[in-house]
Amino acid sequence: MKQMRAGLAAAGYVKHETWVLPENRSLLKQMEKQLRQPILAGSFLSETYMSAGTNWNIDRLFSALQALDEVVNKDITLSLLQGSESSIKLEMNDFGGLPIYIAVVGEQIIVDTVLVDVESINDVPRFNDAVLRSREMFPLSSIGIESMPNGQVVYNMFGALSSDSSLTNIVTEVKTLVDNVQRASEAFERFFN
């Protein structure tokens, strides 16, 4: 061990102590090996760390989300909706109970919420124009039109990720969607009845 440390120091490496959860030890070792290599093109390539290594299904994702501090602390109320296409409903209690839905569909995870009912828009053509010009305002989110099972037509805001995304990236997608819904509500307020 002393020889290895001396060799690394002689090669110009510096010792850095870090604390991680036990389940992240192997990930830290992978990152440590990568950090011993020269930085390519001025950036650290971390794409492999965006993956959970296996595809989520709705039950495993629900179990993982139940362990989040926000769920344990009741900032988010979580429920599993069973049906022909099962999904997870997150009620964002700090944001008036804003419902966010997560579905695992094949190779994708869809994170979705209703932005506004089409009937609540005072000028649909101008609203559509504003939405189509807004893509840079809402990172990681898109806005679409969807017919609900009850026939209601709504604008929804959604994001999509690979079904092997890390839990951290899924949670980031949810939090970003919540932020984007708030920003969209403010940006498009003039179109709402």
Describe this structure in words.
This protein has 6 helices and 6 strands. The termini are far apart. The chain is 33% helix and 24% strand. The longest helix is centred in the last third of the chain and has 21 residues, at 167-187. It has 2 domains: 2-50, no CATH class; 58-191, Yope Regulator, Chain: A. By secondary structure, it is of the alpha+beta class. Strands 1-2-3-4-6-5 form a 6-stranded antiparallel sheet. InterPro entries: DUF2170 (IPR019231).
Key features of this structure:
alpha+beta; single chain; 24% strand; 193 residues; 6 strands; Yope Regulator, Chain: A; YjfI family protein; 33% helix; 2 domains; DUF2170; 6 helices
List the helices and strands and how they pair.
Elements: H1 2-10, H2 25-35, H3 58-66, H4 69-72, E1 76-81, E2 87-92, E3 98-105, E4 108-117, H5 124-132, E5 142-147, E6 153-162, H6 167-187
Antiparallel strand pairs: 1-2, 2-3, 3-4, 4-6, 5-6
Protein name: YjfI family protein
Pfam family, one: DUF2170
